Amino acid sequence: MKVAPSLLSCNFAVMGEEVARVDRAGADLIHLDVMDGHFVPNITIGPDIVAAVRPFSRLPFEVHLMISDPLRYIDAFAKAGADIITFHIEADSDIDATIEQIRRCHVRPGLVVKPGTPVESVFPYLDSLYMVLIMTVEPGFGGQSFMTDMMPKITLLKEECRRRGLDVLVEVDGGVSEKTIGQAAAAGADICVSGTCVFKANDMAAAIRLLQQSDQ
Ligand code: DX5
Ligand code: ZN
Predict the structure, then answer these.
(1) What b/e readout covers 98-119, taking b as 16+ CB neighbours within 10 angstroms?
(2) Residue 99 is inside which H or E element, if any?
(3) Reduced to 3 states, what is the DSSP secondary structure of residue 19?
(4) Which of 79, 85, 198, 202 has the most CB within a 10 Å radius?
């Protein structure tokens, strides 16, 4: 299991240092939550902040766009140093055009589904995706409870990818901890996002290691 700590739970006053700290603690990727106060009821960071913290780690930056018009901002986040950009299938932008724009910027594209959205909705786009992100909380805030009833989505998605011979990564986001990670691992998730559990841990390296070892 790969672990992508979410900076949403870090100390925003020293965000660059936090990126370096989570890198030293053994993270596999860095997850950056972008919220516009419109698609979700919270506002976080924009491309300038992503660019400012980019030099603090060489790990892949995964930008999770929780914004209404992702297509409009792809170039800016690509320029800021995103390696992966994921956006919501529920957003307003044209999906094919957004995926294409991400690829044109030499960034890897992913689609995200909210808890209320069936996973089958991403099936028509699977051929052109690097990753699918399954939300296990309602997007907008860290520190919420993991929704166990999302696990069948992971199983279904994995089955569909296997059937079509596709190697699309499956990621879970929201409420992941040492208590809930086992279910996601058993269902077949490849990567987990974790904010609270990693940044509030007394021993960050141990917390990351525990999540990484969940599928062994
Ligand atoms: C929620 C964000 C998540 C969140 C996860 O909208 O997409 O990435 O930060 O935080 P925890 O692990 O605290 O649920
Ligand atoms: Zn996220």
Answers:
(1) bbebbeebebbbbbbbbeebeb
(2) helix 95-104
(3) helix
(4) 85
Cα–Cα distance measured from residue 78 to residue 12, given in angstroms and rounded to the nearest whole number: 22
Residue nearest to atom 3 of ligand 1 (CA): 174
Whether residue 173 lies in the annotated active site? yes
Q: Is 16 exposed, middle or buried (0-12, 13-18, 19+ CB in 10 A)?
A: middle
CA pair distance 33, 42, nearest whole angstrom = 10
Q: Indicate which atom in ligand 1 lies nearest the CA of residue 175.
A: 14
| Ligand 1 contact, 8 CB (< 6 A) | yes
pLDDT of residue 76: 99
Which of 23, 94, 149, 173 is catalytic? The answer is 173
Which residues touch 65 (CB under 8 Å, ≥6 apart)? 34, 73, 77, 85, 86, 87, 88, 91
Question: Is the minimum distance from the CB of 81 to ligand 1 under 6 angstroms?
Answer: no
Task: Using a cut of 0.85, tell me whether the model's pTM lies above it.
Answer: yes
> What six digits make up the tokens of 141?
């805030």
Over residues 134-152, the pLDDT tens digits come to: 999 999 999 999 999 999 9
The pLDDT score that the predictor gives to residue 215 is: 78
Q: Which ligand is nearest to the CA of 3?
A: 1
Q: How many Å separate Cα 58 from the centre of its chain?
A: 17
User: Are the beta carbons of 196 and 174 closer than 8 angstroms?
Assistant: no
Domains with residue ranges and CATH for the chain: 2-215 (3.20.20.70)
CA–CA gap between residue 4 and residue 62 (Å, rounded):
8
